[in-house]
Amino acid sequence: MKLKLDTQVILGLVALALAGIAPNLFPAAQAGIAKLSVTGKVVLLPSVLALLVIFLVARARRYSTLVRRLAVGAVAGFVATFGLEVVRIISFRLGGMPGDMPRLLGVLLTDRFMVGPSLLSDILG
Q1: 76, 68, 66: which is closest to 11 by C-alpha?
Q2: CA–CA separation, 111 vs 116, rounded Å?
């Protein structure tokens, strides 16, 4: 059986690899591999921009399957994040969680750990 790798499949595989970057940055920072403030600028931002470029290229070339997969993935990520935030906020307010993780992520992204949170770090978190 011959494997056919056309442009749409390759773009899909690249998008899959790029989408896997964001969830791995925090564990990498916690393991001491790199600071989140550095990887956010050097790795996260370019990966998000590359995903956007892939989406626009797929749309321009009328790769409807890839466009649909990227759009559904983005919507699913938003819905899952929204649901997780509802549970997290309730749990944090009732004392079920020891810390405010999104606020911590924002502080780590802006490298304000010793200074404390700011409006920008809260938005990024």
Answers
A1: 66
A2: 9
Our measurement of the distance from residue 58's CA atom to the centroid of its chain's CA atoms, rounded to an integer in Å, reads 20
Q: What is the DSSP string of 60-122?
A: HTT-HHHHHHHHHHHHHHHHHHHHHHHHHHHHHHTT-SSS-HHHHHHHHHTT-TTT---HHHH
The pLDDT assigned to 123 comes to: 74
pTM for the full model? 0.77
Cα separation, 25 vs 92, in Å, equals 23
Query: How sure is the predictor about 75, in pLDDT bands with cuts at 50, 70 and 90?
Result: very high
Q: Are 125 and 105 in contact (CB under 8 A)?
A: yes
Annotated domain spans of the chain: 7-97
pLDDT in tens, 85-119: 888 888 878 887 776 677 777 777 787 777 777 77
- State residue 1's pLDDT score: 60
- Sign of the alpha-carbon dihedral angle for 42, 11, 53, 75: negative
Q: Are 30 and 104 in contact (CB under 8 A)?
A: no
